[in-house]
Design a protein that fits this description.
alpha/beta; eleven-stranded mixed beta sheet; six-stranded antiparallel barrel; 20% strand; elongated
Length: 573
């Protein structure tokens, strides 16, 4: 739109357009507005609305006025006109709030900036001061071209970001202010899942610990299960969490369903895999039926979590192999038996395949992992860093499925919602171009799609959102994005974020460490937050090594090597 035409429209002179005309930097006190002119004197007029569209519009901003405001004492007003900052437009007795998405210089008038904006919501106007109050999301009335654009002050933002009566946790300070607190609405965030994204080194682990600590503080009887693939979070939750690793997890093998059994016991591929799976299904069902618990169940299935002895399973496989009327050769039976014997003999798998885990300990195991009751320690950290890599995904699959199955089968009981937090989520829910279906991907995708109906919340933490399965990120109602350096990751997040947050997305590559952009259900409007510092004893063990310092230290290498080799050989920690 020609800006000179806009000036002619304001002046009521539809004469011939002047190609070099500009929008004058009209002093606010000379403007005639609805309401008391003295109110307008306290407002900072910075431009005009030029074009209106459903989700956003185009405005012109006076660069001279913006330059004069950069030294303003109010940090929010000083930021006026920058990408990601807010503007307000009066529509009747309400203020319409919008976020600046893009900027470009006017082609002919270099004193004028053309900006695209996204509408965020609206609030009522306080008649005496002109400030915003009672802010709400969404737009009921749009402005018309020619409406004036004003800078948003810190007092306005305090009203916009003010938390209502809903349960919330404060996690940092809203940028660019110094004292406005950024908060997350706990029920809205957990009810519709959340994702925490950020490249390595941006403070992602510390931010996750901060959010979880804040939730634990207001919910000491909560139920949070965190999958920790690197052993980072045990240090952060010693005081208020239950810590599990291969030494004390004691996860019974018989709690796996058939698909998870196949992932571990069936090693063949192609047509042979189907043959081995059929044999395993038949033998596993027989092994489960030997338990007395099976007698109380009308129709036993191969997925039912009923204890059985591994020795019973191998004996049944041996007997089936000896039958003359079997449909195949003995090779599939030998493959299955040798794999089971291998797992029984390997001490690395004792946390799961020990002969001590055959008792019916399901209620105890579920109770300790899901913190039922929590006894003041609402979070359980499952450190899977010591789990052999070939079964790590299956262990995560079992834990995730137990969360979902418990929620389904406890629907008629007093509800105990559970939050499942999955660090390095791209390892377990990879996209189709990286890996095909697996048990862990299937259950986590199902939780993402259906979990909230059953009281299961999913928290995904990842440094590579573009490697996540398609559609999973879009199921997350709240997205907390730290700095992302990769173009593909940025594009993936941009596609998942709601329309009103697009202006913030441009600043993702420019975020500092421990800064994030939050949008979605967990916040009233998209915000950029500088996260709080976490106490030393509550931080995860994720600090980067200081090469310049550590490479100046020496001594004791022989003893270090001896201890490391001993642990290495024992496959212990």
């Amino acid at each position: 739109m020609d800006i000179s035409a806009h000036r002619e429209f304001l002046n009521g002179q539809p004469g011939e357009l002047d190609p070099v005309a500009t929008v004058p930097a009209v002093a606010p006190e000379t403007k005639t507005q609805a309401g008391d002119p003295s109110i307008n004197a306290a407002l900072h007029h910075i431009g005009f609305v030029m074009e209106i569209a459903g989700s956003g519009s185009q405005v012109t901003l006076d660069s001279a006025i913006l330059s004069s405001l950069t030294s303003h004492a109010d940090a929010s007003i000083a930021m006026s006109g920058q990408v990601g900052s807010q503007i307000k437009i009066r529509v009747g007795s309400t203020w319409l709030l919008a976020s600046i998405r893009t900027q470009k210089l006017h082609e002919r008038d270099h004193g004028v900036i053309m900006a695209q904006v996204d509408f965020l919501g609206e609030g009522d106007e306080e008649k005496l001061t002109g400030k915003i109050y009672n802010f709400r999301r969404g737009v009921t009335r749009y402005p018309v071209p020619g409406s004036e654009v004003y800078a948003v002050s810190s007092s306005d933002l305090k009203q916009v970001y003010a938390t209502d009566a809903r349960a919330n946790v404060e996690i940092g300070t809203v940028f660019p202010t110094k004292d406005i607190r950024g908060a997350l609405y706990v029920d809205a965030m957990l009810g519709k899942h959340f994702a925490l994204l950020g490249s390595t080194g941006t403070g992602k682990s510390t931010s996750a610990a901060l959010i979880l600590h804040r939730i634990c503080d207001i919910a000491p009887e909560g139920h949070i299960v965190m999958i920790d693939p690197h052993g980072e979070y045990s240090a952060a939750f010693r005081q208020n969490g239950a810590l599990f690793d291969v030494n004390n997890l004691a996860m019974p093998y018989w709690m796996m369903n058939f698909a998870e059994h196949c992932e571990i016991f069936v090693t063949s591929t192609g047509d042979e895999k189907q043959i081995d799976s059929d044999i395993l299904a038949k033998c596993l069902l027989q092994a489960r039926s030997k338990n007395r618990i099976a007698e109380t169940i009308g129709k036993l299935t191969v997925d039912a979590p009923i204890p059985y002895l591994l020795s019973d399973l191998t004996n049944i496989i041996q007997n089936e192999m000896g039958k003359l009327d079997k449909a195949t050769s003995s090779a599939p039976f030998m493959r299955l038996k040798s794999k089971i014997d291998e797992l029984k003999a390997d001490p690395r798998y004792n946390f799961m395949f020990s002969g001590m885990l055959v008792g019916d300990t399901m209620a105890d195991f579920v109770g300790k992992i899901f913190r039922l009751p929590s006894n003041g320690k609402p979070i359980s950290i499952i450190d899977v860093s010591g789990v052999p890599s070939d079964i790590t995904s299956t262990v995560v699959a079992v834990l995730s499925r137990l969360v979902f199955d418990y929620a389904i089968w406890s629907r008629n009981e007093p509800q105990r919602p559970i939050l499942l937090v999955c660090e390095e989520a791209h390892r377990y829910i990879p996209s189709d171009r990286i890996a095909k279906d697996s048990a862990v991907r299937s259950i986590l995708e199902r939780i993402a799609k259906e979990g909230r109906k059953y009281g299961v919340s999913l928290g995904l933490i990842t440094q590579r959102p573009s490697d996540l399965a398609e559609g999973v990120l879009s199921q997350c109602g709240t997205i907390i994005s730290m700095r992302l350096n990769n173009d593909r990751d940025q594009a993936f997040v941009r596609a998942a974020m709601p329309e009103g947050a697009r202006g913030f997305l441009d600043s993702i590559p420019a975020l500092r460490n421990r800064e994030c952009i939050i949008c979605g259900e967990g916040v009233s409007i998209p915000i950029r937050v500088a996260l709080d510092n976490l106490e030393e004893e509550k931080r995860p063990a994720s600090e980067d090594p200081l090469f310049s310092q550590l490479w100046q230290e020496t001594g004791g290498e022989a003893e270090i090597l001896e201890r490391v080799v001993r642990r290495w050989r024992a496959q212990g920690r």
